[in-house]
């Protein structure tokens, strides 16, 4: 039945069908088989011809279509992984490839002086905190960071905090306080539900790829072997 339908298919119809790589491969294997049975085999002088004079398809076209299929599948994989990264990762907007920042990176100069987002709107007396150092370089600036899971649980609620170079910053809190969730958002494992954070001037919502070049993360569990 397949060969009966093939006799009715035009060249354009066959090329459209070859957008499935298995169809392209099947055509190529079929032409190899036919030429081997005739005793000629596939040669450079006949790879662009079909054993059947009425057939516009040939071995060369099937190979070219497999290359086209590979390019299409590569583009689809790149796009789907960017927009739907799965359980871990920050999804990009559907039109991310239209943004200049994706191809050229963040062209804005990294000015951490404007990244003191966390506590400048509130007085130190109100927050009961010591003054932030003015002689140290700001590394991470978190402003109003929030994470709400799909079940409605609020894991991180309006967190604002600054990390400075030459200092060690530690999170202390009970189980479920949001420590791991905060680190997961800062490292790009989860997207934030609200607020943002800047790491050396780069926003975790839009510049995670460039941030990862300067970021190391040691998780609390074994990422290779389950317990």
TrEMBL record:
ABC transporter domain: residues covered: 157-225
One GO CC term on file: membrane
Annotated keywords: Membrane, Repeat, Transmembrane, Transmembrane helix, Transport
Molecular function terms, GO-annotated: ABC-type transporter activity; ATP binding; ATP hydrolysis activity
Residue stretches spanning the membrane: 59-80
InterPro entries with a match to the protein in the record: ABC_transporter-like_ATP-bd, ABCA, P-loop_NTPase
UniProt-recorded name of the protein: ABC transporter domain-containing protein
Species annotation: Ciona intestinalis (Transparent sea squirt)
Organism taxonomic ancestry: Eukaryota, Metazoa, Chordata, Tunicata, Ascidiacea
């Amino acid at each position: 039945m397949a060969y009966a339908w093939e006799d009715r298919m035009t060249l354009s119809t066959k090329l459209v069908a070859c957008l499935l790589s298995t169809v392209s491969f099947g055509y190529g294997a079929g032409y190899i088989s036919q030429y081997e049975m005739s005793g000629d085999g596939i040669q450079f002088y006949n790879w662009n011809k079909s054993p059947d004079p009425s057939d516009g398809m040939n071995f060369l076209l099937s190979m070219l279509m497999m290359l086209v299929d590979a390019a299409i599948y590569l583009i689809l994989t790149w796009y789907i992984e960017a927009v739907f990264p799965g359980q871990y990762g920050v999804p990009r907007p559907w039109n991310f490839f239209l943004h200049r920042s994706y191809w050229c990176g963040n062209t804005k100069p990294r000015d951490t002086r404007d990244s003191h987002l966390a506590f400048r709107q509130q007085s130190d007396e109100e927050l009961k905190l010591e003054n932030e150092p003015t002689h140290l370089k700001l590394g991470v600036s978190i402003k109003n960071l929030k994470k709400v899971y799909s079940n409605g649980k609020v894991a991180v609620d309006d967190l604002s905090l600054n990390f400075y170079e030459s200092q060690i910053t530690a999170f202390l809190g009970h189980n479920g306080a949001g420590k791991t969730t905060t680190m997961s958002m800062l490292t790009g494992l989860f997207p934030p539900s609200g607020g943002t954070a800047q790491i050396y001037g780069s926003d975790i919502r839009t510049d995670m790829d460039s941030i990862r070049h300067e970021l190391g993360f040691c998780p609390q569990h074994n990422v290779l072997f389950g317990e």
